[in-house]
Amino acid sequence: MSNTQEWHYTDSSGQQQGPISADALQQLAINGSITTETQVWTEGMDEWAPASQVEGLISEQAPAPDTHAHEPQINLSPQASGINLGPSIQAKPMGQSLTTQYSQPKKSPAKWIVSAVILALAIAGGIYLANSGGDDEPKTTLGLETYTKANERLSACKTGSAFGNSSHAGTIGKQFLATINPPKAKAESDAAAATMKEASNNDKKSSEANASDDAEKKPSAPEKIELALHCQTSEVDGEKAVALLIKIPNLHNLDPAAKQALLDRLWASARLSLANTPYGNDQTKLLVALRGLTSYDCLMSGVPAMTQAPEKQPREGLAKTWKGKDAELKLPPFFIEKQ
């Protein structure tokens, strides 16, 4: 041991003490404050070691128990180690160890950096997966799956058919078909068609002369409407809703005036269809969606109010109308199924 060395040691409670001179350390060994098991450290040592392994530290004491008789002695004097300690020595800080309370050699900072990067990537990946759905199935729009299935079925069915998701929906669908095309209207339509055919035959030459002009004109709304229908009834948190998806294949043939007349007729028929059902009150949300063969053209939303005859007030209860692409975006929430 060299008098120029500064030492650190642990007391009986395991707390780190020092720095102290080599003489002071040896004095503690003489008075018994430092025993052969006491952990000591000085600059140049890789780890803390028992005092029994430091040459000259406990030489003046009575022979220590023979527990370390065969352990090699360590001479850490500057002359033996070849280390130039210099005039000032900084104590090696005691860190935390996985196996003992004494510090171990420091780990490379590069390993901590790599571990931190891997952890950050894992957290970022988890957040991304939690916030993003798959490409095939949107997860944020309630009712979208049910709506999609209903719309696919509507696309495949023929005109004159109606279906729904419940017994009430089936009843509403049938009443709607009977209301939109009543028997009287059908008979009058057939008679008008026969009359028009006869007039057309008698005036064939005149019709042929104006054929080019007539080809550019779009027909008015037909008396009999060829359509297919899906009715969806739902009740979520005590709130009732009815959605009617209506497909009219020749919708694109109608001019704006004829289309507006058709919309009025559809809304009035929808209100009449709910009249004798549990959904025929102003607490029910009513939605009527009109589409052609491929896409939706118009969406009407409101309540099935019925204070006046439909022919006098066909738009009673109608609150809002969407047209074009906006129409289809409003549909899925009406297809939230009761859990």
From TrEMBL:
Entries under Gene3D superfamilies matching the protein: 3.30.1490.40
Region Disordered, residue ranges: 64-87, 187-221
Chain ranges passing through the membrane: 112-130
Entry-linked InterPro entries: GYF-like_dom_sf, GYF_2
Chain intervals with Low complexity compositional bias: 190-199
Entry superkingdom: Bacteria
Domain GYF positions: 7-57
Keywords: Membrane, Transmembrane, Transmembrane helix
Protein name, UniProt field: DUF4339 domain-containing protein
Organism: Oceaniferula marina
Lineage per the UniProt record: Bacteria, Pseudomonadati, Verrucomicrobiota, Verrucomicrobiia, Verrucomicrobiales
